[in-house]
Design goal:
Blueprint (H helix, E strand, L loop, with lengths): L4 H18 L3 E5 L6 E10 L9 E8 L8 H16 L4 E7 L3 H9 L3 E2 L5 E2 L6 H4 E8 H9 L5
Antiparallel strand pairs: 1-2, 2-3, 4-7, 5-7, 6-7
Length: 154
């Protein structure tokens, strides 16, 4: 369901405030060739994951459907992981998606995240029952460093 203009403006104000306070958040995602805004990606603190009682930092994204399948999210998400681990010094980054969102879970796998089925949860901010169940994926700084140092395949 799309947001109204007022809801969108309120969300952008909230995101901008968080970026101003922390130095990171969800950033607009633009195509390099056209400058067109096609979605967002970034890092955001969250308390939505029950297995992370003290909160955690999630990597998230949204992309307009006509840009799906071109690798934009994979490229942007990898840059966000590098920022989170290399610049912010995070020890873990999580991601989660509706259980049947195969496109997002495929991105999570491509960027090196690992499914954590014991952490799957019903999202507390989602009212619709068919969208409530979320799958949890995680990546630690140690896994990130190991992935970055792995030799390239021929």
């Amino acid at each position: 369901m799309r947001r109204t203009r007022q809801q969108s403006d309120e969300l952008l104000d909230h995101i901008a405030s968080g970026i101003a306070q922390r130095g990171y958040g969800f950033w607009a995602l633009e195509r390099r060739d056209t400058g067109e805004c096609i979605g967002f990606t970034g890092l955001q603190p969250t308390n939505a994951v029950p297995s992370r009682e003290t909160g955690c930092v999630e990597i998230g994204w949204r992309l307009v459907p006509e840009c799906w399948g071109y690798g934009y999210i994979t490229e942007a998400a990898n840059a966000c992981l590098a920022f989170g681990f290399d610049e912010l010094g995070l020890e873990e980054i999580v991601s989660f998606a509706v259980a049947n969102n195969r496109r997002s879970t495929a991105v999570m796998t491509r960027i090196g995240m690992v499914a954590e089925p014991s952490g799957d949860f019903d999202h507390p901010q989602v009212a619709r029952q068919d969208l409530k169940r979320h799958l949890l994926y995680t990546l630690t700084a140690e896994q990130w460093r190991g992935r970055k140092q792995a030799p390239a395949l021929p």
